[in-house]
Amino acid sequence: MIVLNSAIYFGTLLLFSSSFAFNIEVTHPSVKSGKVKSLFGFSVAGHRKQNDERGLIVGAPSDDKSGSIYWCPYQSNQCRNITFNIYKAASYSYTELGHELFGYSLSTLPLQQDRLAVACSPRLAYEVTGKLFVTGGCFAFSNTLSDPQFLGASTCLNIPDSSRSIDLRFCLDGASASYFHNTFTDIIISGSPYYQFARGIGLVSNMTEFKPVRRTDSSNLGDYSLLGSSSIISDHVYSSASDTNKPIVSVFGAPGVPQTKDEKGSGFVILNVIEKNTNQIIIPQAQLLQGSRFGSRFGHAVALIDLNGDGWDDLLVGAPFEQQMDPSALQKLDTEGRSTLSGSAAFGSVYIFWNQHRRLPSITAFSDSDIQILKPPPILSLKSGFGSVITTLGDIDHDGIDDFAIGAPYDEGGGSVIIYHGSKDKKIGAPTQHSSKLYCKGSIVVIRILAARNGIDKDIEAVV
């Protein structure tokens, strides 16, 4: 296990290289440290308070008994523990088992003031008639990081025959989470990858309506799909940034190896359209995108980023265990897509699905025929985990198109971050920067971008 006890973030520096590109200045990082073996830095999210104080929320899921989150202002070397009793905040029926992993996942909107912050605890356990249900759950904090509201995990309690099988009493809600806000609503989605024999499920909580928690349809999923291991939400999938009618879309990753006759065991991602003003509890699938290699963990990471500046979000999917092979090696696969070669190529891919500009949710937003696959740069070690994390950086080179980073946490020397620039012609070029050996082996890397646009500084924390 990699023991994290630091978070590192970097500023930007204009480097006049042959491409005249903006890159990340890595020689003078700011290091935020926590307790040893607390996993401080396991999750990180930027946050902006009402008084315009800006900083990082840092998760330490192994801190003390149940896990912790910390507030780390940019202008201070000190981090403050956001203390509260997660058991009482959830309900008095939740049992103090320890190792609840509070702070395992976080989600914020760092560019906006007066917005919520979400922190999750996937190992929260609920006792019913002497039986423990490891439901997990997420908490929504006010902008000042106070008044936590438990979002509830009743879906993980009402499972038929759960009293008979311990495998039906695990859910781990909060393994992933994503927060969305527009003028009309605040929505939080969370992933529960161990729901119902690890099929997985996505939960949708509307913070502006007094309605039950909604859930994605998991009826046709195979066991061990692990749906909800990653998640993201946006309203620019079936609409552009300039449209007025913007359907809200969730994306959940399922990087597992499902046990069904029809599944390839390659992982997949599912899109769901979250309807407005409806009593619908189960949210149907809008689209399913399948990975191509057995055991690739396709769906381990997902991101929605406008990579070509057209106003529509494109979909990025990480497959960190996918093996890269030359065309001749592709012919040497067994019937389940597993390589018959060993050590023949590097591992890891990131799939870019370009948005097809469909305004009707009944039509698929992405196509298997319009994709680009990013492979790990040769400088990375064989099993670097390229594609384990994908995050937007905003427009760091000021060309009007968002850029992004890909994490390779198992690269030799403590992990690596690879920076890519967006492209108007839908052709992402070679990486513009590769940062490795980042001072603290095993530390989480946080790239702080200060990209002025329209007179406003943009703070983006890229957690990789």
Automatic annotation (TrEMBL):
GO terms for molecular function: integrin binding. Keywords: Glycoprotein, Repeat, Signal. FG-GAP repeats lie at residues 25-81, 285-340, 372-427. GO terms for biological process: cell adhesion mediated by integrin; cell-cell adhesion; cell-matrix adhesion; integrin-mediated signaling pathway. GO terms for cellular component: external side of plasma membrane; integrin complex. It holds the Pfam family FG-GAP. Gene3D superfamilies: Integrin alpha, N-terminal. It comes from the Eukaryota. InterPro entries: FG-GAP, Int_alpha_beta-p, Integrin_alpha_N. SMART domains: Int_alpha (SM00191). Residues 1-21 form the signal peptide. This is Integrin_alpha2 domain-containing protein. It comes from Hymenolepis diminuta (Rat tapeworm). The lineage of its organism: Eukaryota, Metazoa, Spiralia, Lophotrochozoa, Platyhelminthes.
